[in-house]
Design goal:
- There is one protein chain.
- This protein is mostly helical.
- About 45% of the residues lie in helices and about 5% in strands.
- The mean pLDDT is about 85.
């Protein structure tokens, strides 16, 4: 117990020192240095729209968090979707950013079960409902196998398919293809000159 008490006291002393002292600006230098080393930058929430611009579509401050792991919340949030699944109007679902969920694996199991019930699936017809996740996997990262989904929305595949269009080695072939289909065979520099 004494080792734990000594370690706790040392941590508390270190944190007290790291947190600085009101009225002594220089006492916050270590905390400022620690925060500067992080992969994020702290910012006052009211300036988020002006200062946090690394998200292309939205920022986290504009989202509402729902506790879909709570059965009552899950049912309320998915009521309309499951009704449309039951009516056959919806044949697949896209779940955006499942990594932000409390337990993504559990959520997808719960969603699959709810879709099976909505379709009144008989035991012989218990195939999974078509669900994809809007998740970008990078490098060696793999989609989690315990997610009961078909796969991702396809950004990785689209990136692969767009490769030939941006590879400089294919430029001449695409210029020939464009010239033959569009009827335009003059150099791009002539087009620029004429349009200016």
């Amino acid at each position: 117990m004494q080792a734990c008490d000594a370690a706790r006291a040392a941590l508390e002393d270190e944190l007290r020192e790291l947190n600085g002292r009101p009225g002594e600006a220089r006492s916050f230098d270590r905390l400022e240095a620690l925060l500067a080393e992080q992969a994020y930058r702290l910012s006052f929430w009211r300036v988020a729209a002006d200062e946090i611009n690394y998200r292309r579509f939205f920022d986290i401050n504009e989202l509402a968090a729902l506790r879909v792991e709570d059965r009552e919340v899950f049912e309320a949030v998915h009521g309309l979707v499951l009704r449309l699944v039951a009516e056959g109007e919806v044949t697949g679902l896209r779940v955006d950013h499942p990594d932000g969920l409390f337990e993504p694996s559990r959520y997808f199991r719960q969603l699959q079960d709810a879709c099976r019930r909505a379709r009144n699936a008989r035991p012989a017809d218990r195939r999974p409902f078509y669900i994809v996740a809007e998740k970008i996997v990078i490098g060696d990262e793999e989609l989690r196998r315990d997610w009961e989904i078909e796969g991702t929305t396809g950004y990785g595949f689209l990136n692969f398919m767009n490769g030939p269009f941006v590879d400089p080695a294919n430029r001449a072939a695409f210029e020939r293809l464009y010239a033959s289909s569009a009827g335009w065979g003059r150099p791009y520099s002539d087009l620029v000159y004429e349009c200016k």
